[in-house]
Amino acid sequence: MGMCLPCFGGAADDVVVTPDPDTRRRQLAEAAEKRQKETTYRGVKNPEAVERKRKKQEEIEKQEMTTSVSGGGGLRWQVG
Fold first, then answer.
1. Could you report the per-residue pLDDT of 8-49, keeping only the tens digit for each?
2. Which of 30, 57, 56 is nearest to 38 (CA)?
3. pLDDT recorded at residue 55
4. Has this prediction a pTM greater than 0.70?
5. To 10 degrees, the CA torsion angle through 15, 21, 23, 26?
6. CA distance 53 to 47
7. DSSP state of 4
8. Of 8, 13, 33, 41, which residue has the fewest beta carbons closer than 10 angstroms?
9. Within a 10 A sphere around the Cβ of 5, how many other Cβ atoms?
């Protein structure tokens, strides 16, 4: 009896201090980012190479878009 009271023994050491809401929010955001990265690169041996390849592909697509918009260098229809 009486062993459940926090004033006796080391029960005060078992109390978990909860962080303030801003710290908790930041920790949750970091954990979510980590989980997202893990699932994104799941099964990929070299994630850096995949990321480089993706960025290069985006640059090529962007370059194609600017070329086609500004130059209009594609085929032209002629009615004759």
1. 555 556 677 788 999 999 999 999 999 998 887 788 788 889
2. 30
3. 96
4. no
5. 130
6. 10
7. T
8. 13
9. 9
